[in-house]
Each structure stands twice: as C-alpha cells, then as structure tokens.
Design a protein that fits this description.
Layout lengths: L9 E6 L3 H12 L4 E7 L2 H10 L4 E4 L8 H10 L5 E6 L4 H9 L4 E4 L4 H17 L9 H11 L13 H13 L4 E2 H8 L3 H13 L3 E6 L7 E6 L2
Parallel strand pairs: 1-2, 1-3, 3-4, 4-5
Antiparallel strand pairs: 6-8, 7-8
C-alpha cells in the first residue's frame, strides 16, 4: 500500500473507457475531500503504464474495458507488484465476477448507474479504512483485525428511499432476474410474501435506477397490466 502524498491526499487513477462516464467519475472524485485524481485513462494498457510511472493509492476501475477485463487488470497489477487498492466501478452484475473481485482483494464494488453521493460514501469509507492502517503498525487483538477487514469493505449508508430495505430489494431483484419473462406486481407479491403495493414500489425503484424496465401485458379485453423485466 503506497503512502499518501505529502499533502495527505489519496491519489486516484480513474480507469473508464466511456468518455462521459470517465469525465463524471473524475469530477466526482475531485469533489471528495482527501482525494486527488492523478490521471484518467480508458484502457488497461494505459492504466498499467500509469501505475508504473506514478504513485497511485487507489484505482477506480471499470470492469469492461476494450482491451482487457478489469479482473485481469487487477491480476496484472499484482503480478507487477503494484499495491494500489482497487474500487470496482461497473455495470457488471454477474455473481461470479463479484466473487472473484472479493477474492482478488477489491475493496469496494460500486454498481453503475450511481449518483455522486453513492461514490462519495464509498470513498469516505475507504479513506476511514486507510486512516486506520499505518505502514509498519501492528494490531493487538482479533477485534482490531476484524475492524480493519470490515473497514476496507464498509457498507455505506443506504441511499434507498425512506421505508425501503436492502434485503427485500435484493429479493425483488433476484425474482426479476431469475424469471422467464416479466412479472407483475401481483406475481412478485405472491412470490415474496409481501403486499402488492410493496412489490410495486420496489419494482418501480429498480426501473428508476435502470436495472429493470416496465412493459404492458395484454391479456384479452380490458386495461393492460404492467409487468417488470430485468434489463441486465
């Protein structure tokens, strides 16, 4: 793990191949106290070259780069001796990718699309973790070890609307992702054991965050029913 810059700022490398997203992520990082963007690049080759040439504390890494998968970039970093931490910033929702990210030591996994507040919370959690870890220091108890490991992947404050919970959101997401075709709010409610109103609220939230879509289901005469489909 690299020592912070003399000014105490954590130096960030943004790796993102979509120009609009790269610009947004760079601007977001610049708005968070304690961080500075050293470089913004769009390929794995440029990322590894930057790591070789500059002191980097943390890499904001897209998983779907044009020349190499993000997980392979992390492997190449470690093989070359680069110790910068990695925060994945990606639309990749494949569970195998997430598991491999954990096994490779990626400290945060932020799903696109996201708002500034989401990334800010992840960065602040990471900064708090870094403040606990001093090169050459020792831990005295198992509790201190657990605190360091928890801090690296600290769950940020939920940004869900008031009254919504992460656990039920995950269940609704899984129900839509695993469905053959769309599911109506009534079908979701029956499958999950919740009210139709609750199921609809969660499904609508997934549509607002662009991981699900709505469409009309026509079944004979009368008003069509809205159904929800996983879009990833």
């Amino acid at each position: 793990m690299a020592e912070p810059s003399p000014q105490g700022l954590l130096r960030v490398l943004v790796v993102e191949d979509e120009p609009i997203a790269a610009e947004a992520h760079t601007a977001y990082v610049g708005r968070v106290d304690g961080f500075e963007v050293v470089a913004t690049v769009g390929t794995s080759q440029a990322a590894l070259k930057t790591l070789q040439d500059k002191e980097i504390d943390v890499v904001l890494l897209d998983m779907n780069l044009p020349d190499r998968h993000g997980l392979d970039v992390v492997r190449a970093m470690r093989a070359a001796g680069h110790r910068a931490d990695v925060i994945a910033v990606t639309s990749a929702r494949d569970l195998d990718v997430v598991r491999t990210a954990v096994s490779l030591g990626i400290v945060q996994y932020v799903l696109k699309p996201f708002v500034f507040a989401t990334l800010r919370e992840r960065l602040l959690a990471y900064r708090a973790y870094r403040s606990q870890v001093t090169s050459g220091a020792e831990v005295g108890t198992q509790a201190e070890v657990d605190e360091v490991f928890a801090g690296a992947r600290a769950a940020a404050e939920s940004r869900l609307p008031k009254g919504m919970g992460e656990e039920l959101l995950a269940k609704v997401s899984r129900a839509l992702r695993d469905a053959d075709g769309g599911r109506s709010a009534t079908e979701l409610a029956e499958a999950l054991g919740v009210s139709r109103v609750t199921a609809r609220r969660y499904a609508e939230h997934l549509c607002e965050t662009r991981v699900a879509v709505r469409r009309s289901r026509y079944a004979g005469a009368g008003r069509p029913e809205v159904e929800y489909l996983w879009s990833r």
